[in-house]
Amino acid sequence: MKTLREYFLQAKTEKWAVGHFNFSTADQLKAIVEAAKELNSPVMVATSEGEAKFIGREQAVALVKSYQQEGHVVFLNADHHKTEERAKQAIDAGYDTVLIDASKMSFEENIMTTKIVVDYAKEKGGLMVEGELGYLKGESQMQGTVEISPADFTKPEEAKEFVERTGVDRLAIVFGNIHGIVTQQEEKLTMPVLQAVVFAIPNVFFVLHGASGLPDEQIKEAIANGITNVHINTELRVAYHDALEAELQKEPDQTTPYKFLAPSFEAMKELVKKKLELFGSVGKI
Ligand code: G3H
Ligand code: ZN
């Protein structure tokens, strides 16, 4: 099996993106893995700190390893781990890669914290580390509006310094993206900001967080402009939830989880397939 780094290099050269999908239950993970398998696509799966707490950190690792042993091309990311301690715990538990998200700290503290995790990852065998710079607003849920300000966008010069001083492999950037879906506002990426950041730093992989709710065309344009990793969470949560709600209404007496969860599983799997097609990773294994 190729390494995650090799897939990123391939994605960068060929201008496609690795899909990154969050899960907090075993059936959600299975839906993502099956979708990727059917399309011959490499895939990243992830747990945030909250998701990891729910499914169990060690259990998430064991589940993903079991798929890897069966030959599935799936990599587990510790998504938005906010402290050095928790990022290190994820590395120790066996995650394939980690996002140390110290973006709410000052620039200097963000660099220091991220660098500690990069050094730790090197000691532990050199797994890929992602850092985050810029203020990414919103939560992975439905929201009315989220105020977006250019002041929160990633600045090319700072990003360059951040990458040089930390040595991160991937950089999560902010250029109009937000976490979650907004119902009373249009989500819109600012491509010139992405272009300026990409131009400033040749040796890093760029990550688009908060891709739920963005029009397909914008995601495609972002990939064409240098994004090689796209994160989706809210759309999956909504698909899973809505299918479950409809099923419980349709079959109120059904109490067997593998029966009433089947439509949620299928809805999530279909959505992941659609996204993998959009990201251009189909057939890349
Ligand atoms: O790290 C996770 C993602 O950035 C998810 O964002 O909920 O807007 O899809 P989203
Ligand atoms: Zn994110």
Q: What's the gist of this structure?
A:
The chain is an alpha/beta fold. It has twelve helices and ten strands. The strands form two sheets. It has an eight-stranded parallel beta barrel with strand order 1-2-3-4-5-7-9-10, surrounded by ten helices.
What does this entry look like structurally?
By secondary structure, this protein is an alpha/beta fold. The protein has one domain (4-279): Aldolase class I (TIM Barrel, Alpha-Beta Barrel), CATH 3.20.20. Helices cover 49% and strands 16% of the residues. It has an 8-stranded parallel beta barrel, surrounded by 10 helices. β4 (97-100), α6 (107-123) and β5 form a beta-alpha-beta unit. α2 packs across α12 and α6 (107-123) runs parallel beside α7 (156-166). The mean pLDDT is 98. Glyceraldehyde-3-phosphate is lined by residues 22, 79-80, 140, 179-180, 209-212, 231-235.
